[in-house]
Amino acid sequence: MRKILAFLLILTVLPTLAQPRHVNPEEVTSPSIDPQFLSSFYQLISSYIMSGNLTGSSDILNHLLNITAPPDIRYILSRFHELAYSENELLRAVYSNLKLARDLALRGDLNGSAAMLNDIYRSLAEANLTYIGLEDAAREVERRVGARAGLVLTAIAKMIGNCSAGASDLNETVRLNLTKTELNLSSLRTEAWVGDSVQLFGSLRANGTGLADRKVIIVADGREVGSSLTDINGSFSFNLTVPYKYVPSILIYAIFIPNGSDSLRYRSSVSNNVTLKLKYITPYINISVEPGNVTPGGNLSVNISSSIVNLNASIYVFDMLIKRVLSYYTAIGLRVPDNISEGPYKILVLSEPSGVVGPGREEASFYVRKIGIKIDVNIPSYMLALIPYKAKICVIGEGNRSIGPYAAKLSISSLSMETLSNSTCTNLSFSLPPLFPSGSLEARVLVIPNGTEFRQDSVSTYIVAINPIMVLVALLIPIAALLAYRHYRRPKLKVKPKIEEVPEVPKAVEEEKKPSYSESLKSDDPVVKEYIRAVMLVEKATGIQLMPHHTISEYAKIVASKLGDSSELFQRLSYLAEMRLYSSAEVDPSMARSIRTQLELKLGLKLPSI
Amino acid sequence: MRSYILLLLLLIALTLIAVTLVYPIRDDFSPLNPYWNGLEKFFDEKNASCLNLAAADTVDPSKNVILIIGPSTSFTSRDIQSLRIFLLRGGRVVLADDFGTGNELLTGLKVPLNLTGYLLSDPLINIGSPYLPIAYWGKRRIALNYATTLNSSKFRVIAQSSFFSYLDINQNGKHDENEPTGPFPVAVLVPYGPGELLVISDSSILINSMESRESNRDFTDFLLSGKTPLVDCSHFNMSKASMARNSLQETLYFLQSPEVKYSTALTIPWIVALLLIRNLKKMRGHR
């Protein structure tokens, strides 16, 4: 018993321990925000701002604008995040503009740099103004939420300070009256092989005079490749090794950035661009794929020819990467994956560059096609439920080829069955279930070949299903209704016999009816006569017959309960009859008559006189 | 006396049938449940119907989308094979599950993806509780309800949780140091041959109380892609009341078979006519 109780308890408790899958959103109450969790993000924002990653901090602040909070702190939190976000955006603009202004100043565009500085100062002033509101909001967040909003505040203050310092430095440089410098660059050659050496020449001048012993930086294809010092005439030369870039051409230029005391005298400058055409060998690669149409699981033969040998090549096909060293002719055998879908596919060959040999690229197309199947279904057009039937399904591939093992699935309305077969034709045995509805139905046969090279297909045909059970049910319904109707109609006719019909009983039958015991009693005594009449009345009223074995008092007792109020009269009359019969006492016959008359009146019955 | 007992039994039977039909179903994800945790609204609005997953291979992929929402019972090999065929015929399947048996299906279909089974919490971006987090579907927001996450690096992520979300592994309602933080993928698209499988790590986005929250309705339309939804009803845990109602419905289905329907339709007027004639005769007799 205890075990059963424990088991029931476990059964009751187990579902409550299961992971809930959802709650009613209407019934949840917004919990207060975890200050530590929020502080961890303020810490992250602060570190981003400090490291100059203002895009990162902007991203988090942007997310924080959408946070859900209880109504009492919602406003203060959203206000703080809004202010922090706008402050961050201002500083982000200042930070990037400052970089741009510095670049312009470096390139000698002091006017452009000065214009940008004006924007920077405007944004910084705005940031200072917002900071006051941000300070108040941060204080409130710390007080009411308990999150360390001060971290963000401190980081922003530091960033404002850094930007202001950077702007002041730049301002000093830009406002100084610096001398403009001119930098020229040239080359004797306009084209060169990759890896080759090219001599570059140039000069650095200020007001037409060459600047001696100044460092000039050479930039090729966007990368600093070296530097050179100017001679006494301000001229310089540089031996450039052409980078192994397999592009049509590269741009080369020189930069002069004043250093030390030069920064207070000269402006920086950038030379003209020198374009150098690059020469390299492009390998000729050709690919052919056989056959052009292939089935899943089939074999592909890929032939690659290359004009240059020993090239490292990467071959991409079916999400696979194959590495090969190419010779003049390279043959590769491939197997098409089984689970691949039909459609056009490509094979791509990329050869890696090596020295003066540049990269090679070639691709070829082929088509993966599944083999179609033809399904023949032989199924009876008319079917009876419960009778076993056979559907003959024959499947053959295109070109009369066998498709190997396959699954054939037959579905008729809700009935579905399947079979596995290895031969061209298969029989599927089935019978319509007992409650299957009759009617015209679609029988669909779906064939799923096991071999991935074959396409699955289906055919449909219409059959007429007749279910004798259901037809019987259809017939039984009206029959049952009719029987029920008749059954309930009969008793109603029985209970309402017409009283008048009673005399119609044949007389002969009535004559044969035995007289009751009371009717057979005869007496000359007037008191007993009255008693017999009273008995006949009581028999009529109660339906209880006086039997030969009854004594007078026994009969009076038996009928007493049925007579109700009249029983007293009958008992008095019974007593008078007993007195007269068994005690030879004198009894007044008029009294007996009077009692009988009263009884008649009380019972509302009257008998013909005896 | 006997007829009184019969009448009483008939009354009891009718009351039971009426109560079974009228008594509201409160099962999770039940299409007949009009309360917060049911799918009645979704079924009504999207004209969805129930499907037995074993018959998925017979569904027309050009017209229907199969939805498997919050499966609770195991998938048979027949279910999986049937669904695989539907997918290989170019069908779209949506699996929305969190703590159910969805991983069984993913394993069966050999999809290298699974539901982590850890509760997703977002204390900052939610619809009233950290366990009702908001996820981002592009720039739009979708509301989740006791969701988990997906561990997938291979497939296209359709929706992900916010930057502030984390996995509440020990379910203490607080972020602990070892608990990974978001964003986490909560909906991914898995190409499956010519078909596609959309896996969502929350089973509740379609329930009555969630379907109109944030952009959930738009997301549902995206999942259905204009096709008629067929919802797998063969993997829900059903209560006794639901089972009784289902049995009644099956009986009604039997009563709707052409034989029973037409035969009853013919018998009833006939019986009514007989009763009328009898009553008319009786009335004449009284006169």
TrEMBL record, chain A:
Organism superkingdom: Archaea
Keyword Membrane: yes
UniProt KW keywords: Membrane, Transmembrane, Transmembrane helix
Keyword Membrane: yes
Positions of transmembrane segments: 462-485
Protein name, per record: DUF4129 domain-containing protein
Organism, as annotated: Candidatus Methanodesulfokora washburnensis
Organism lineage: Archaea, Thermoproteota, Candidatus Korarchaeia, Candidatus Korarchaeia incertae sedis, Candidatus Methanodesulfokora
TrEMBL record, chain B:
Recorded superkingdom: Archaea
Origin species: Candidatus Methanodesulfokora washburnensis
Alphabetical list of InterPro entries matching this protein: DUF4350
DUF4350 domain location: 54-220
Name of protein: DUF4350 domain-containing protein
Pfam families on file: DUF4350
